[in-house]
Every structure is written in structure tokens, then in C-alpha cells.
Amino acid sequence: MANVEERVQLIFDELKVLDSIFCAKDEFLVNDGRLDADIESSCRNLVEGKVENLQLTVKIPSENTEMRLGVSLSKDYPSSLPGISVLSTQLTRKKTSEIQELLKGHAKESLAQFSEPIVLKLVEWLQEKISEICLETEIQVSRKRPVNDDKLYICVLKFDHMRSRKKYLKTITNWVTELNLNGCILFWEKIIIEIIEGFKSDISKYLKRLRTCTVDVDSAGRACKERMMDVLCEVENTSQNRIASGFQTLDCTSLKEFEQIFQNHRLFDIYQTYVKDAIIK
């Protein structure tokens, strides 16, 4: 077992990482509050046995299911298994219990393998699991399209960067397919622009996934959510022209080639109105 100072630092570092990833209001709580300046003292009090535990709560991002992971750290953590609970008002008690037991099994395996703080690993595992649950729900719901959702829209997005381009593109390509969208993503120098076409409700689901699910990695290689995407426009496609079926990745070697893609899709008016000023400073 690591000494007191090492364990204090391990727990403190893990809490800081979680707080940096889940930084929106009430996404990550320690003893029902946000991380504060006294957190290192709280970690020390835990390790020295002056407090019984630290209670962590993490809101797991999802489109259709709100879920919270509760973790109770004891004075022997990370050498001992933390207390784990899963709470969701939208899943059945049976389903929640199943997920909780699977998560505990994953926690035991992780602790045996790594002998280091495992809360972030549990969060990442649960994010993957909840995506499967939500996908099953979404497939059932998508068969009941709103009556008025019969108009096609064009949405243009601008991304700041993609650290793990392969992982990012694989994820969004799968989403585009699942949600029956069409489009392409353009790379030119440091510019990344995505064009998608589909029904408004499906585009809304896609945008929500981008904002709530992990799609990339941060500078330390940890899974992270998209926080630097801009929606340049979301407008009704009033023409009879459709974007070709599927999803393409296009690498451009010049601005002319970049603009030509909008011309080819008969979207040059959208380029002139919404995109040009955003990429040419």
C-alpha cells in the first residue's frame, strides 16, 4: 500500500481530473458540493481516518436516460474497492441493479489489474454501457417520427480540433448512419467543417450526442466530450437537391477545392452566408 502522502496525492489528482472533465453545473459533486480549495485537506482527512468517507456523484451524459454514479471512497482507497451505486429515474430497478452489479465486477477487475484510482475508469465504462442502452431506446423511438417532421434541414458545424481523428470520425460516422443522416466532413489546413442533412429531430439527436458523449481525447489521452464545436447554421433545405447518401471524409489541399465542395452540393449560398467569415479571418 502506498504511504499517506502518495495516497492523498493519488486521490486529489483523480478528483481534479474528474472535475475538469465534468465541469458543468452539478455534473461532478464531492459530498454534494463542487470541488473547492479545501479538497486536498478533505483527501488527507480521509486517508488519515479523520472522516469516514468521501461521497462522489457523477452525472453520466446521455440523450434519453439520466443516470448518476455514486462512489463512496473509504480511508483505504485506492487499495480497497469503493462503494458503488447507480441511480436512474428512467430505467427499471431491475435494469439499474444489473448495471450496478456489472460495474462492481468491472471495478474489481480494474483494481486487481491497476492498483490505482479507478473512478474515472468506472465512469468511462458506464458511459459506454449507457450508450448501448440509449441506442436500443432510440431505435424504438425513431420508428415514431413526429407528424410534422417531414422537412429536410442542412446543418453546418465547425470544429476546433480533433486530437484522435480516427476515433472521432469512426464515432460520428456511426451516429450519422444510425440517425439516417447524410453529409460530409471537410479538412483544409486547420479548418474542420461538417455538413449534415436530415430531418430536424434527427439532427437534434446528433448535436446532442456530440455535446454529451465522449468523442475525442484530451492532451493527456483521456476520453473527453466535444466542447469547442460551433453550429454555423441549421436551415431548411428548400431546394430539390439532396446531399449524396452516406457520409464522406474529404481532405482539401486548397481554399478553392474547399469551396468547390459547397458548389458541388449546390450549397454555395450557405457557404457565402454562414461559413466564409468563420474560416477566413
Automatic annotation (TrEMBL):
It is found in: Cytoplasm; Nucleus. InterPro entries: RWD_dom, RWDD3, UBQ-conjugating_enzyme/RWD. GO terms for biological process: positive regulation of hypoxia-inducible factor-1alpha signaling pathway; positive regulation of protein sumoylation. Pfam families: RWD. SMART domains: RWD. The keyword Cytoplasm applies. Keywords: Cytoplasm, Nucleus. The keyword Cytoplasm applies. One of its GO terms (cellular component) is nucleus. Its main location: cytoplasm. This is RWD domain-containing protein 3. It comes from Paramuricea clavata (Red gorgonian).
